[in-house]
Amino acid sequence: MKQFIFILILFTNSVFIAQTENKDKNIFQKYNDFLTIKDEDKTSFIMFGVQYAKVFNVKTITTSGTHISFGLNTARFVSNKFLLGISFDFRLTKGFSSKRIEKTFKNDYLNNFSPTYESSSDSVITHILYEALNGNKKHNFRGMYLGNMGISFSPFPNKYGGFLIEVKKGYRTFPMHYSYDSSDSTLNNGTRDWLDLDISEVLSVELKFKPLTFFKDDKFKLPLYPNLIVSLYYERFDFSKAKIKGVYLDKMVTEEFTNKYKIEHRFGIKIGIGIY
Q1: Mean of the pLDDT values across residues 191-204?
Q2: Are the C-beta atoms of residues 230 and 208 closer than 8 Å to each other?
Q3: Which of 33, 78, 204, 238 has the maximal Cβ count within 10 Å?
Q4: Contact between residue 161 and residue 149 where contact means Cβ atoms under 8 Å apart
Q5: Long-range contacts for 34-40 (Cβ within 8 Å, ≥24 apart)?
Q6: Residue 136 is part of which domain span?
Q7: How many CB atoms lie within 10 A of CB 176?
Q8: Could you tell me if residue 227 is inside a domain?
Q9: Beta strand 247-248 with 263-275: parallel, antiparallel or unpaired?
Q10: Is 30 contained in some domain?
């Protein structure tokens, strides 16, 4: 967290120094002038966006897909020049397509599969995951749910590209459809034929900006030109906390597998439309 705050301070200073013409004032006086000068650019109370995310450096299960973000700019109660608020990421539906699972992850799970179980329900859950990763068409991952919550900050939301940084914590859930003999009674899952692989510890850092606002030419000023949002982001997955119906993944595999996939670092890009 300290590293992110340090980067944020450097970013704010460098942007302002590069743009200001008054060199006789210190950085705090310059920013105070910016906050007090009246102009037509005002921040919004609401932050909202719909973006398609493409993730890279995936070692387990991909999280690419459509992401929705929503937030409240609480700084708007004291100033209409900067943005500081609380924000959320989520998906309205899990989606319908099968999720891509990395081949190495599949092979490592199958090779490090542990046949020892504490109960019959643990046995069923472990074998359902085993069959899903082994290519059984009756057992497969479909779609994804996600949730993030955190803080958003932008010193110049309507100038210099509108750079905005967000730090969030959340979860990822991968629904797995199954058809297993006697599994409903064993799992006590009612009529539901889904199991969820839950990852409850996900840290994300995201840098958003409005690329078309860099151009001053009128030909770029289309109706939605200030609403095109591009994001670069980082995600840290803690797979040591992954579980299915209360059964932790590390109970299904060897210690070697757990150590290899305990922490996963991902990078990605998002593009879509939004307001902030």
Answers
A1: 84
A2: yes
A3: 204
A4: no
A5: 34/81, 34/156, 35/79, 35/81, 35/82
A6: 2-19+41-275
A7: 21
A8: yes
A9: unpaired
A10: no
Contact 50, 68 (CB under 8 A): yes
Is 213 inside any structural domain? yes
Q: At what angle do helices 120-133 and 103-111 cross, to 10 degrees?
A: 140
- Residue that has been written with the tokens 């409005």 in this structure: 210
Residues 6+ apart with CB under 8 A from 243: 197, 198, 200, 249
Triad 143, 102, 244: Cα angle to 5°: 55
**Does residue 29 sit within a domain?**
no
Beta-bridge partner residues of 48? 70, 275
Q: Distance between CA 41 and CA 27 in Å, rounded?
A: 21
> In terms of Cα–Cα distance, which of 3, 10, 12 is closest to 153?
12
Integer Cα distance of 199 and 242 in angstroms? 5
pLDDT at position 8: 47
Q: Which residue has the higher pLDDT, 153 or 121?
A: 153
Residue type, 176: M
Length of the chain: 276
What pLDDT score does 13 carry? 53
Q: Looking at the 3D structure of the chain, how many domains does it have?
A: 1
SS3 content of the chain, % helix, strand, coil (to 5): 30, 35, 35
Coil/strand/helix, residue 201: strand
